[in-house]
Write a sequence for this structure.
């Protein structure tokens, strides 16, 4: 048995891409119109291709990650050098007395204290300048 193949003309949205659906009249009982098991065929090169913008965005993100890694390593190396060069003991005068501590521990304590105070002040400013709450149950 020989079957006669029908050719349906259609306009492709891009060269080499088979559209997902065929628009227009297909004809009497054509398998394209009646058989749901026949899936539309797509070119994998057209659907998997990365656009210039996506590629540029991906490469920029990768460059930023590399820059962050280099800066982190440089910061850690600087902190190690700072700690190694400041091991001398210094006299610290408190309000009610004085003590001798290593300069590294004094700098580290001051940095952590400043960070915690910065977090507390930021939270206080956020709490005092937040938007007013609307009444519950009222539209």
């Amino acid at each position: 048995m020989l079957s006669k193949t029908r050719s349906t003309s259609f306009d492709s949205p891009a060269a080499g891409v088979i559209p997902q659906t065929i628009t227009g009249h297909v004809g009497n009982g054509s398998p394209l119109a009646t058989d749901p098991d026949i899936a539309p065929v797509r070119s994998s090169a057209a659907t998997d291709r990365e656009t210039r913008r996506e590629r540029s965005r991906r490469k920029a993100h990768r460059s930023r990650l590399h820059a962050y890694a280099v800066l982190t390593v440089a910061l850690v190396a600087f902190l190690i050098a700072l700690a190694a060069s400041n091991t001398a003991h210094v006299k610290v005068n408190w309000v009610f007395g004085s003590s001798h501590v290593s300069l590294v521990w004094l700098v580290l304590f001051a940095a952590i204290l400043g960070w915690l105070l910065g977090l507390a002040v930021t939270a206080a400013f956020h709490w005092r300048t937040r938007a007013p709450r609307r009444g519950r149950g009222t539209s």
User: Anything to note?
Assistant: The radius of gyration is 35 Å. The first strand starts at residue 89 and ends at 94. The chain is about 50% helix and 10% strand. Residues 63 and 69 are 10 Å apart (CA to CA).
